[in-house]
Amino acid sequence: MLKLEQITLDELVVERHQVKEVLACLLHTIMFHRALGPVIPEDVDSDLFSITYVKCNDPSVSKLIEERIDAFAKALENTSQNIGQICLSFYEKHVKHSWLFARQEERVYWEQWNIPISVISVKNDTDRKKREQELEKMILDRITFILRTINEKQEPIPPVSSDSIVSFPYEISSPQLAESWNIWKKPSPIPTAT
User: Of 23, 99, 159, 162, whose CB neighbour count within 10 A is largest?
Assistant: First the structure.
C-alpha cells in the first residue's frame, strides 16, 4: 500500500486581490505535472505577475480548479480569518469487501499538496510595489520547488490505469473552511481511473 506523502509549501502572504492568481499559478502547475495522460500543455501568462506557467489544456480540469479557487477566495472574504490552506490530493480507489458480500469503495491518498495563504492589507503604493516584486519571486520559488519535488520523488506513484488527461483521481479541499462551506464536502466531479 502506498504511503501518503504530504508536501506543504511555505506560506504565501498576499493581498486579497492576489489570492486567485497565486493559487491558479500553483494548482495548475501541480496538476499539469501530475497529469500523465495525453495532455496538451497550455502556457498561461499571469495577469498580475511577470510569470508564465503551464496548465492542462482541458476545460473540465480548468473549470474545477477555478471553481475551487473561487470558492476558497469567497470563503476567505466571508470570514474573519485572514489565513487559510487549500489542498490538492491525489488518491487511488480500492474496493473493500466487508461481510455479506458488501463492497465499499475506499480512497487511499498517496500525495497531498498543501498551500497555506495569509491575506494582508498594504497601505501605500510604494509598499505595494515592493510586496508585488517579493511575491513574484516567492511564486517562482514555489513553482521551482514543485517541479523539483515531483522530479525527485522517490516513492512510487500508483500505476496509471486510465487514459484520461489526469490519470489519477484527485480532490481540491480546504480543511479550515470545510465546516462553513458545504462545497468542500462534496466529492469532486473529476475524471477517475477505474
Answer: 23
